[in-house]
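Quick one, tokens below. Sequence please?
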């Protein structure tokens, strides 16, 4: 591979002598470190460079990153709360009648149909909302990172404009990427429903047991394939924003960049996801505790037979605190892994396409410390590497 032939195995991918890449310590033998105009050195990145670059980007561009995330996820939460309020006001009478039924009574179709319809509408609104919000976030993070790598400032309005201009192809890439995991998820759901049917029917050897076995075997068989494919296409959103690729072309581009480095990208991506999940959980804990007190006070004032509206009002304090905690947690758990993925995209282009000198030129710094690699492979479509 290009990076193996030209960069070797030192600290930045070069030959190492006495612990120093490219021949010796700074100034010895003509070696100088690669430039670092922004959050990362413009050379092949190690694990510390990737994680450090992600943290540095969050520290320097926190207003743009967290402001965008808070606006999007907060707006989505308010939109869904308004949609739920509208839906409840439309079907509250039907809901109260269904809730008030005794165990031996059956709800009439005149009450069930409006409730099912409201649930479907809310589900569709939720899917559209989360798709747009996810698309904007997956476009906004690379837009910020593109300037962070070069050490240039970027305004919130500029991030918003670029994210909005690329949201449609990013959503397309995310949908295609999510389809990768569809088969294992469906098989797991088949096994789950087979188990439920088997338990309810007390069926010890019938069709439900067969469905359970087939579902589990199918999920175990297709799960590793889904993980492999997901890592292959995980750089697609970054390719959409950085290169202006369409959804299908971005998936092909991601597969090309990941080739030969699958295990490293898998490990770093998994580590970033675990770190973000732990941080999001820790952040959410104080909000859960804060919500317990108004929830306990509200439920203590309920009558013996409260209405649905009374229960919702009594639990409103807990619900608000929980939603705030989930929003803050979502902001953290979404931003950090995307920054890591974006830096892995930059790293792969530096390693395979000699993007370092191009970035140095774009940042206006001397392209020092770059070894001679010979001919640089052109990017898809020909031409020279672009940023």
């Amino acid at each position: 591979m290009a990076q193996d032939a030209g960069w070797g195995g030192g600290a930045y991918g070069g030959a190492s002598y006495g612990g120093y890449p490219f021949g010796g310590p700074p100034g010895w033998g003509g070696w100088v470190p690669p430039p670092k105009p922004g959050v990362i050195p413009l050379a092949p990145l190690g694990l510390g460079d990737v994680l450090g670059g992600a943290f540095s980007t969050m520290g320097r561009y926190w207003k743009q990153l967290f402001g965008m995330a808070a606006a999007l996820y907060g707006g989505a939460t308010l939109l869904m709360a308004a949609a739920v309020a509208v839906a409840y006001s439309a079907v509250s009478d039907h809901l109260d009648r269904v809730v008030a039924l005794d165990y031996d009574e059956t709800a009439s179709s005149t009450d069930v149909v409006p409730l099912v319809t409201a649930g479907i509408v809310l589900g569709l609104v939720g899917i559209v909302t989360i798709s747009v919000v996810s698309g904007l976030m997956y476009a906004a993070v690379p837009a910020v990172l593109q300037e962070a790598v070069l050490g240039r400032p970027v305004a919130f309005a500029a991030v918003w404009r670029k994210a909005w201009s690329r949201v449609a192809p990013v959503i397309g890439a995310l949908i295609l990427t999510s389809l990768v995991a569809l088969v294992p998820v469906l098989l797991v759901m088949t096994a789950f429903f087979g188990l439920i049917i088997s338990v309810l029917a007390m069926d010890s050897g019938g069709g439900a047991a067969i469905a359970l076995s087939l579902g589990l075997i199918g999920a175990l068989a297709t799960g590793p394939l889904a993980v492999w494919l997901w890592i292959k296409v995980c750089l697609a959103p970054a390719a959409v924003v950085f290169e202006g690729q369409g959804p299908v072309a971005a998936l092909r581009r991601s597969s090309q960049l990941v080739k030969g480095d699958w295990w490293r990208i898998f490990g770093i991506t998994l580590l970033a996801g675990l770190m973000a999940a732990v941080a999001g959980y820790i952040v959410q804990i104080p909000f859960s505790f804060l919500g317990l007190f108004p929830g306990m006070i509200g439920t203590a004032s309920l009558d013996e037979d409260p209405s649905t509206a009374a229960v919702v009002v009594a639990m409103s304090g807990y619900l608000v605190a929980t939603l705030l905690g989930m929003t803050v947690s979502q902001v953290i758990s979404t931003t950090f892994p995307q920054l890591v993925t974006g830096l892995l995209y930059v790293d792969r282009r530096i390693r395979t396409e000699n993007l370092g000198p191009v970035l140095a030129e774009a940042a206006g710094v001397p392209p020092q410390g770059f070894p001679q690699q010979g001919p640089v492979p052109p990017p898809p479509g020909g031409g020279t590497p672009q940023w």
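The first strand starts at residue 16 and ends at 17. The chain has a mean pLDDT of 78.
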